[in-house]
Write a structure and sequence with these properties.
- The structure is a single chain.
- By secondary structure, the protein is an alpha+beta fold.
- It has three domains: 92 residues, GIY-YIG endonuclease, CATH 3.40.1440.10; 163 residues, no CATH class; 149 residues, Nucleotidyltransferase, domain 5 (2-Layer Sandwich), CATH 3.30.420.
- 47% of the residues lie in helices and 20% in strands.
- Helix 12 packs antiparallel against helix 13 and helix 15 packs parallel to helix 16.
């Protein structure tokens, strides 16, 4: 497809899910094989973004290839961005489109799991962790895959306000009084339900009512919002007949919330990031008097560490003790991997000199990615972030916590890698 093909499409300015399709090799002659599934705040604006000049930078070569091979785009509307996000996950799971897998390794997707416990918890777990430690969880149900951790967590916050649930590390039945006191604030503001008899946080609910919340959450993730609404309307009428007016009013609020889902934060994220995670990569070099020189890269997406995408580099082409040379080698080797997702922001450890070296290398490689450096004091504590230009300073202001965390992780990771290399030398 190209821009002129897009202009022939009639896409609505509303939330939903879109399908890039290839008719050429399809058994479904009417619509075509699904190559890629995505979600959108505005179907029209999102699909138009695939025909921009900087697509290869914003989405990578695999998506450029997908757009080129596509013959048409179809869509399915949703009532909200939140519902589009869930619909997208269900459809990706059902159809397993080729380019959804190519764009992001399965190991970096997330799942929502509901635990099989007396009081089930609703948890977000990285797919890789779930595969490795599946026995750690007793799973009643699971949903996904979801590619964007930030949006998924934000979505669960919206759902939690409608149907309060526990997402604690400990099972509810294993909590001690001190654990319960710690979560008291969340209970008092209605994010966790008040099921604890010996504490006075708010309005108590029964175990049956809590399990009904969990059933509704399961139905919501299965895409059955209409069924939930019918059940809630029936329940509200029953409460009213029994003159349980407070319960009837609470149920009425749930119905209103479901019909008017407040996903403004999701809409802002969607508009700002064009459906992508905001990716930060931080780099660091470690050595001892030039010995066992190593470098590392850490990755954060929407404020969450993506540890399975961390990289280690043994510096073989750099003179011992040459920090600038080490940085050059790491960046050259990293950005020669065109198949890796490119970052939105590069974080360098050091001052103006390191930042300038990184800038020259990225320019030489034709990589148009913003760079900042974290300046340290004599105790190696961060004392500032170097950034040039108003736009970049705004990005730093918004992501300061993650930038510092990514930098700290890179330092920790490089030191541990260096120590492991030294131990091997001493054996």
């Amino acid at each position: 497809m190209n821009l002129s093909d897009f202009k022939k499409l009639s896409l609505p300015d509303s939330p939903g899910v879109y399908f890039f399709r290839e008719k050429g090799k399809s058994t479904n002659k009417k619509e075509g094989n699904i190559l890629y599934i995505g979600k959108a705040t505005s179907l029209q604006d999102r699909v138009r973004s695939y025909f921009s000049n900087d697509l290869i930078k914003t989405r990578g070569p695999a998506i450029v290839d997908m757009v080129t091979k596509s013959d048409t785009v179809t869509f399915e509307e949703a009532d909200s961005v939140l519902e589009a996000l869930i619909l997208e996950a269900n459809l990706i799971k059902k159809h397993k489109p080729k380019y959804n897998t190519k764009e992001k390794d399965d190991r970096s997707y997330y799942r929502v799991i509901i635990t099989d416990e007396e009081y089930p918890r609703v948890l977000v777990v990285r797919e890789k962790e779930l595969k490795i430690n599946k026995n750690q969880y007793k799973i009643l149900d699971e949903f996904g895959p979801f590619p964007n951790a930030g949006q998924l967590i934000e979505s669960l916050k919206i759902i939690q306000k409608i149907f309060p649930f526990f997402d604690t590390k400990k099972p509810v039945t294993e909590m001690k009084p001190i654990d319960i006191k710690r979560i008291g604030v969340k209970i008092s503001i209605g994010l966790y339900p008040d099921i604890f008899d010996d504490f006075n946080f708010g309005q108590k609910i029964s175990k049956k009512e809590y399990l009904n919340n969990i059933r509704n959450i399961r139905s919501f993730f299965e895409g059955n919002k209409n069924k939930i609404l019918k059940d809630l309307e029936k329940k509200m009428k029953t409460y009213a007949k029994k003159q349980e007016f407070e319960k009837a009013n609470n149920t009425k609020k749930q119905i209103f919330a479901l019909n008017h889902i407040n996903d403004i934060k999701l809409i802002k994220d969607e508009t700002k990031n064009i459906g992508r995670d905001f990716r930060i990569e931080a780099y660091d070099v470690a050595h001892l008097g030039g010995e066992a020189s190593v470098g590392v890269m850490t990755v954060f997406e929407n404020g969450v560490a993506v540890k399975n995408e961390y990289k280690k580099f043994i510096l073989r082409d750099t003179e011992p003790g040459d920090d600038y040379g080490g940085l050059r080698e790491i960046l050259r080797r990293r950005f020669n991997h065109k198949e890796w997702t490119f970052p939105d922001l590069v974080v360098i450890d050091g001052g103006k000199g390191q930042k300038n070296v990184a800038g020259k290398i990225l320019k030489e490689l034709g990589v148009n990615t913003k760079i900042v450096s974290v300046v340290k004091d004599e105790k190696h504590n961060p004392k500032g972030i170097l950034a040039t230009g108003i736009k970049l300073k705004k990005i730093v202001e918004k992501n300061k916590k993650t930038i510092l965390e990514a930098n700290s992780e890179a330092h920790r990771f490089s030191i541990n890698f260096h120590r492991s290399k030294m131990r091997k030398r001493l054996k």
